[in-house]
Amino acid sequence: GINAEYGGVVPADWIPEGSDPLLFSFLFALTVIVISCPCALGLATPTAVMVGTGLGAQNGVLVKGGKPLETAHKINALIFDKTGTLTYGRPTVTNVIFTHSMNNSNQHPQQLDDGSNYHLDEKLFYSYVAVLESGSEHILGKTIHLHAVGVLNKMDQNYNQPQLESFDNVEGQGVVGVVRGKHVAIGNRLLIRSLGIDLNKHHNLDLKMTELERQAKTVMIVAVEKEIIALIAVADQVKLEAPLVIRYLIDKLGVKEIWMCTGDNSTTARAIAAEVGIKNVFANVSPANKSEKVKELQAKGLIVGMVGDGINDSPALAQADVGIAIGAGTDVAMETADVVLMKSDLRDVVALISLSRATFNRIVINFFWAFIFNALAIPIAAGVLYPVTRPTTLHPAIAGGAMALSSVSVVLSSLLLRLWRKPNIPVPSAPDQNPDACVVSMRDLSDLHDPSQSSLPLIH
Known about the structure:
Structural class: alpha/beta
Shape: rod-shaped
Radius of gyration: 34 Å
């Protein structure tokens, strides 16, 4: 018998008539090879990623490849840039407060606190501001420039802007230059102090700045020939969807840490962060240091997503595990980022993470199905059921069909991802974003210490 002749591998009556042990074994081996082809395993990830990126594009979320889509589901820390990301990026001048009463003519010089005569009328002031800020590339600088030009055009329709004689942009602080032979500076406290200008010269100047900053306004100091002339407050309205998106990220998606990163001072930054519901703030951050803030969170073991729009955000977008650029941002930012939100809608950040999680779950399902198929099919192809089904065996051609069917089933499973729907976060319609500027002129800050004329707290 076959047991004796072939070492007792199989009983003799298991060999079909007209066959021999070599062919009998070869058919089983061939069937196993055919049915164990790992096509389904190989299709599990790319098919799901292909459907996921397509869905993202249909919903205004352009994902550059599979890696960002697969990584986004692991994000547990998000950093949001402020201007143009959490806000509309269309700031307006809300307050212009002069430290001295100004003339509308060139006839009478003004008496400064230190007793010196400094001749400056309102038209000349706005001329200095318009000319100096014409060299700025920052959105706040452009806003101040347009505001000053608008005021000048109302004063004199034939106004011609003089040339900017010299210009220097001090990163994270402001701008300095020479206009009409005068040294002019517009910037924050750091810039003014670096120029050796005394902020305490005017009564309660710093208190007034703090009061404005608590209203989520960015305050710039204007100095001419080292004399502080005025404060210019600029505000940028928070996007209507921003608070809702932050709340959804925390409550529904479970993002551990959400940060706001801005060059604004701490008071202004925290006022805006509180408005949108963000507790963690990186304030006074220079453009060059934004990427360092990303590294700080990554060093804590967090998977960091960075959301920004400007050229200054590009290093941070590149450093982040997933860089997310706002579609209305600069070309450099969109080129650097892994994901571009084409509609500039913060709700698409939620959509990205939700889609990534759905895609990852679908990949897991695909791998599970492919693994289960192989785990069951290979033993059957090897003949584990042959003692029950003999003389019937799994033909190699049928094994090939089953293998193809497993691949088709994985593709169909990936296509089920199309049932995903973008999370619904309803937002009220936006109000007019171009309110008239509020100009507080002809007011001396030295009067602000009088409680009957100001709501500012007194310093005791």
